[in-house]
Give the backbone structure.
Amino acid sequence: LSGSADPAVISPQDPTLLIGSSLVATCTVSPDFPLKAEDLYWTLNGRRLPKTSYTTLGPSTLSVALAHLNGSRQQSGDNLVCHSRDGGILAGSCLYVGLPPEKPVNITCWSKNMKDLTCKWAPGTEGETFLHTNYTLKYKLRWYGRDNTCQEYHTAGPYSCHIPKDLALFTPYEIWVEASNRLGVAVSDVVMLDILDVVTTDPPPDVHVSRVGDLEDQLSVRWSSPPALKDFLFQAKYQIQYRVEDSSEWKVVDDVGNQTSCRLAGLRPGTVYFVQVRCNPFGIYGSKKAGIWSDWSNPTAASTPRS
Amino acid sequence: GDSWGIFTFLCAALCNLPALPALNCSEELGTSQSIQQTYDLTRYLEHQLRTLAGTYLNYLGPPFNEPDFNPPRLARAERVPSATVDLDLWRGLTDNARLAANYRAYSRLLCYLRVLDGQVGTAELRHRLAHFCASLQGLVLSIGGVMSSLGYPLPAGPPAPPGAPPASNDFLKKMDDFWLLKELQTWLWRSAKDFNRLKKKVPPAVVTLRLEARGF
């Protein structure tokens, strides 16, 4: 038994094909092996292919015809295998059957405290491409022209990337996502933004909820402005949401404005309430855009006095 | 070797001779614990590998994930250290030789697994592989620790480079991956037995006895 030669050779070896295409593959036994075409058979993903699809092309060459191929069963490729009569594997070929990628869409980005930028997107395809698709987020300053590639992926879900540093403020960036697989490349539309327009921050710290004297239908909420941006939050907006202990319905107080305290009224006496606060650092450095809400602070509990 | 040590100490203790230095005491305690930890780590890896292999073989697709799948081991697959050896031969080795063989095998297996990690498709698989590699790295270090505490030298130098060139096509690579996982499985299964046997040669009871003797 020759150690270095493979028992047989399949052609094509590891091809990439569009869904619906047809393929004729051949298995040629190495001259060192005493096998003939009639001793061979084919399987695809472990299932034996019908003899009617075989054609003998030579004394030791057997071909198989596959028509209207479906998308690959697994992203590592469909396993097309040439066997000897006793079931032994002589050779195999991985078939990559799928579709080229579609343009990624819905690119949204946010910057935490103006220090970094995280973007996420959605793959363009409604269904599947059946092939492993690589996504690359690219960005460049609008007026300078050098492309940069984002390196830290999957930080906020499978289709996301994080740019940790070296970001300029007061100047627009162009951002786009390239999707590529074995069948092609697709580029998303370009999104243009200024870091200052997509700033978010940490939830407000030190949230305290306390009673208002003996008033049984009120609670007072106090918090601090998020420390990372405290010097810039001239126009910050806050929002409060609260609910009773045994309900999942949150009530939102929207018109809190710029203060770091608020009084909740019209509450039920003798009831435990959970309260959360979040911050939107809009208008940073005069930015006209809406800003992005922070996460809610951890719930703080307090109860109104009994009547 | 160790049972003779116990006997001499017993004699020394009973005859009120000076107690053995504290260093010996903590060394014995260290060795026994190291071996137990290495055994535990081996069993943990065995368990982790079951899930990892299941996920990975599903990723490779049928027939790789079929229970009775047994592809040929082509010459190129020999670069992965084979776990199948003559059991009598294996048992006949000294503890040092057996530990060294384990150390070398897992070092090489770790290298191959890390290569795998770089190429694999899904995020879930990469995450599992990374976690497994970290644990396997821990096992290599643990075996090294046991060898040191028993006074054995660690096998020299970095793991031997792969003998045969890497797989020339994707299907052959799938077969290599299959055998890598299979060999890993067998190595872990056998190592557990090795460490269990080694544990019995360094009983923790020795330590208790020495501490009691010092209470005189």
Observations:
- Chain A touches chain B through 28 residues (CB under 8 Å).
- The mean pLDDT of chain A is 91.
- Chain A has three domains: 8-98, 105-197, 201-303.
- The CA atoms of residues 32 and 78 of chain A lie 28 Å apart.
